[in-house]
Task: structure prediction
Amino acid sequence: MAGAPGGGEPGPEAGEPLLQRSDSGQGSSEPPAQGKSQQGFLSSLFTRDQSCPLMLLKTLETNPYVKLLLDAMKHSGWCSGGGCSRLSVLSSAVNRGRHFSCEVCDGNVSGGFDASTSQIVLCENNIRNQAHMGRVVTHELIHAFDHCRAHVHWFTNVHHLACSEIRAASLSGDCSLVNELLRLRFGLKQHHQTCVRDRAVLSILAVRNISREEAQKAVDEVFQACFNDREPFGRIPHNKTYARYAHRDFQNRGRYYSNI
Result:
């Protein structure tokens, strides 16, 4: 989810991310018993503030969805001054980075894009594992990409928000077959489109004080155009293999156009 300051409708309270991504639909851990934190064996090897930047670092260096989006960010100017390349090299740069921040968040929130600072907030208390980190970073980078290339009015135009949420749900892997099976949701005919619609509506409801009917109407009104907008991937990357192919094609675009 993403957001930007603007008039017309009240934005978030001071100090909160302008857009937060709820993890509704995927489930979350049960509350810890007797006030004690429940951690798996692997997660217990690192303290919370260590595991978030380490997972982020691995995501930035190895996740094909993220690597493509970071390349697109460089071309769009989001990473002016070489910020993206620094973020992908040193863990210290990730911790203090201009564009990423690991924080403790309220509720069942995984992350958010703060359009006023062009910063992605990662909720270290709710991101469960490496795969989850990859999906959250990809989702928020799609919002950042949209913010770079268009005049998105996050809090004054619900259709702009709906469009970016549709794209993020479709292109980030949120609606992959594996994730839908883990949610115990099954379907064959146009199941990806159904999932994208549902996830976009949930995301809008998490950041806007509107009814489900209003959110659904906004999604329906822009769905076809925004679902078909697959930049910068050029295709729906249903898995990491498709994302690697999309990244290769993206890298070859400049070579192609330079030969015309």
In short: Residues 3-18, 20-47, 81-96, 256-260 have pLDDT under 50 and may be disordered. The first helix runs from residue 48 to 62. The longest strand covers residues 109-114. The two ends are 38 Å apart (CA to CA).
